[in-house]
Specification:
- By secondary structure, this protein is α+β, with helices and mostly antiparallel strands.
- The protein has a single domain, classed as Uridine Diphospho-n-acetylenolpyruvylglucosamine Reductase, domain 3, CATH 3.30.465.
- It has 2 helices and 5 strands; from the N terminus they run ββααβββ.
- Strand 1 and strand 2 form a beta hairpin.
- It is globular, with a radius of gyration of 13 Å.
Length: 98
């Protein structure tokens, strides 16, 4: 199976990260120091964290900001979040000029 070889968190050349929705919360804590993430909040994966923050059924293109980062749903597999793009807040051009 290729899933075993898949990298859950991949840094891209533009300084953003492509994150598999199934990435466990503890892996996000270890990689990025997101100590604010807690299994006590009712989610075990980064996809669960995204759904909780969106407070709705996720769709491609949905975004929010947390911990000084932008999180964007960039790929869905049916109703499941497959891929998330994470970038430092302020690094993407949102059209919200300074």
């Amino acid at each position: 199976y290729d899933d075993v070889e898949d990298v859950a968190i991949r840094e891209r050349s533009d300084g953003t990260w492509l994150i598999d929705g199934r990435t466990p919360i503890h892996e996000m804590q270890l990689t990025f120091g997101f100590d604010q993430l807690s299994l006590d909040d009712g989610y075990e994966t980064i996809a669960g964290f995204v759904v909780q923050n969106l407070r709705k059924s996720p769709e491609e293109g949905d975004r929010f900001e947390a911990f000084g980062y932008h999180f964007e749903v960039i790929d869905m597999d049916g109703r499941r979040i497959d891929k998330i793009l994470m970038s430092r807040a302020g690094t993407l051009s949102d059209g919200e000029g300074v």
